[in-house]
Design goal:
- Two copies of one chain form a homodimer.
- In chain A, helix 7 (147-154) links the parallel strand 3 (137-141) and strand 4.
- Chain A is built from 13 helices and twelve strands.
- The first copy, chain A, is an alpha/beta fold and 347 residues long.
- Chain A has three domains: 25-68, lambda repressor-like DNA-binding domains (434 Repressor (Amino-terminal Domain)); 79-177 and 308-335, Response regulator (Rossmann fold, 3-Layer(aba) Sandwich), CATH 3.40.50; 178-305, Response regulator (Rossmann fold, 3-Layer(aba) Sandwich).
- In chain A, strands 2-1-3-4-5-11 form a six-stranded parallel sheet, sandwiched between helices. In chain A, strands 7-6-8-9 form a four-stranded parallel sheet, sandwiched between helices.
- Helices cover 41% and strands 15% of the residues of chain A.
- The first copy, chain A, has helices at residues 25-32, 36-43, 51-64, 70-76, 92-107, 123-132, 147-154, 178-192, 208-221, 237-247, 262-274, 292-295, 308-323; strands at residues 82-88, 111-117, 137-141, 159-162, 172-176, 197-200, 229-231, 256-259, 284-286, 303-305, 330-333, 336-338.
- The longest helix of chain A is centred in the N-terminal third of the chain and has 16 residues, at 92-107.
- Chains A and B meet through helix 4, helix 5, strand 2, helix 6 and helix 10 of A and helix 4, helix 5, strand 2, helix 6 and helix 10 of B.
- The structure holds a DNA duplex (30 and 30 nucleotides).
Chain lengths: 347, 347
DNA sequence: ACGAGCTAATAGCACGTGCTAGCACAAAGG
DNA sequence: CCTTTGTGCTAGCACGTGCTATTAGCTCGT
């Protein structure tokens, strides 16, 4: 039974009772006829309130449209339980990883703050804004910044770098195993019966050297050393298209091609299609990353998965480790072969 | 594997004098030998401090690595000057708009809070987290939620919906002019000399009806009424591929095709290439949206631009209007024709 | 019957910052 | 000499919440 409600809207006081939006915890307490801390107890589901009171407070809070103020909450509990992510808006793969980080962080009771990197918004801006929000750790995806820049930031807050090769002992590092990835690709094609397997590489891109070396080594090991064929490619569709065009001028063209990444493979795919080659009947093509590009319905590209879920989980684990004072370390995530429809036995 | 950490106590001192990370305003004040409020004055560049003191405080703050706590700042000044954005991680076009919103908001002195929508993170979750951070307004991109859900949210905080057709008087709405867009597309192709111009539509997607009607009307107006050819398509590459395959079975196939969007056009492009048709020599193809897909180097698709910059600016304008108490309204942004390399005079 | 033990609820401080009011002091005017 | 004005700085409260310490209300064991 609530009393004849003294709920008069008296915003006469000079104090800030005049809020257009957002009732406060005190307002709910007054309306429910209890003390403010009790409302706090109910809202964060802490022990110390009876079930009846709990339900009543929750009902009233809901009626008033009360929502706890996250800033005040984070301010009070000295640990913000916040992990900051700097990511690139235009990288589909980053989107995958961010999504998984949300999940992994939530499991550990952490919240996530996003800060975008884009052509008109550089990394220092993004990182700075995350520090201002007092994130306990930063996860940076594919950061283009120099290693020493990140090192300087790491002096103030734990930093984990994902999917980017760099030497920086003060940073947590998560990356895929490039050597294993290309080994799996070659072995997959070889097991289908391919012998003339070419590689359009990533030029001087990070990881390209490892993948190139692994390609050569695996070809040798499988007794295909004489068929080693490495073409300089790059990160983009245009690079892949150029590489594919060059491969098609060979006296005896390859029956299978491993591109540096999915974008590069898409370019190669396009040139093959325009030349009248059927994929995979006449030519098998593989990508790398398992980005959305590879999963497009009418493409269905066979590729090597970097497994966003594992990368994200490893990144969050490293972040938590460093928050708890452990030294930064490196985690190498094993890639996974994803067989779709652009590879087949050679015709 | 990961333990739900039992949170080891690492902070020994009861007072927050010794925190591993993050010196406070008081620490800076003590180090500089001034009062705390004076540091506040210096940090926000308010009048009331001599130039000499200002420089000294700034220098010391910098040496200590002091960064103002955004949460405390936003908490104190009752207006958070924060605009929340709910966007989809996997939509390239959303990325473009978000980037531009950053810029537009900054011009008005507003900060931006990002909240992602993804398969494992639904819209209510994303929106709720933004409200908890006390954003003064919300901008939702391509929200799939029902109009009445958004209406309910709009009772608590101003909401602007972007690039999504819906009837909701309580919401600010920003969208492109679909009719004008398709008119421009048809006129472009007609001016090149095309007569048999087909349209792969978006089925029951939002905006599809308007575009379809505009296509018919414009064809009529240009005296091409007899060549009207609408195929049911959809939003994805597969839909475009299916539509294109169907068009190629026509006794007299079209010389130009307008797809519902860039993804749909990409599917059509792919089928054309596999069939041996040269684009644009034998067939012109147009997309819609001017997403990154259309700008891919080896594609270079002619398309209709939704102009992320204008959409973003309009959205921020509407948000600010509603924050200042004005009634929500609708802004229709005129699209722009982007001629690239998939259209040409009919051969 | 009476204190021990437990639950429900309250009082009060703290987090880091912004803002208003006020204090000390030097220069100018009487 | 005292009063007035302006400058440079400081004291103190407030924002909305979480946490610790404390008290009223109740059951229970002896």
């Amino acid at each position: 039974m609530s009393r004849p409600d003294s709920d008069a809207p008296q915003d006469v006081t000079a104090k800030g009772v005049q809020r257009g939006r957002g009732p406060t915890m005190g307002d709910v307490a007054k309306a429910a006829g209890v003390s403010r801390p009790l409302v706090s107890i109910v809202m964060r589901e802490a022990p110390g309130a009876s079930i009846a009171t709990r339900e009543r407070v929750l009902r009233i809070a809901n009626e008033m449209g009360y929502v706890p103020d996250e800033r005040a909450r984070k301010l009070r509990q000295n640990s913000s339980r916040l992990i900051g992510i700097a990511f690139e808006l235009q990288q589909p793969f980053h989107g995958d990883v961010v999504e998984q980080i949300y999940l992994a962080a939530a499991e550990s009771g952490y919240d996530v703050a996003l800060s975008a990197v884009a052509p008109t918004r550089d990394e220092p801006t993004a990182v700075e804004s995350l520090i201002r929000e007092r994130c306990e750790a930063l996860i940076v995806l594919g950061m283009k910044a120099q290693a020493d820049d990140l090192q300087r930031i790491a002096e103030r807050v734990p930093v984990v770098s994902v999917a980017r090769r760099l030497k920086a002992p003060a940073l947590g590092i998560v990356r895929g195993d490039d050597k294993a990835g290309l080994r799996m690709a070659v072995e997959h094609l070889a097991s289908l019966g391919h012998q003339r397997i070419a590689h359009i590489d990533g030029a001087d891109a990070p990881g390209s050297a490892d993948r190139r070396a692994s390609y050569r080594k695996t070809m040798q090991r499988l007794g295909l050393g004489d068929n080693i064929d490495v073409i300089t490619g790059g990160l983009t569709e245009a690079d892949g298209a150029r590489g594919m065009s060059e491969l098609l001028t060979r006296p005896v063209p390859p029956t299978a091609v491993i591109a540096f990444n999915d974008r590069c493979a898409t370019g190669a795919l396009d040139v093959a299609a325009r030349t009248g080659l059927r994929v995979p009947a006449n030519l098998s093509i593989m990508g790398y990353d398992d980005s959305r590009l590879a999963r497009v319905p009418h493409v269905q590209m066979t590729t090597v998965s970097q497994d966003a879920r594992e990368l994200a989980r490893a990144a969050v684990d490293l972040a938590l480790e460093q928050i708890h004072g452990q030294a930064p370390r490196e985690i190498i995530v094993q890639p996974r072969l994803v067989v779709r429809e652009t590879t087949q036995r050679p015709g």
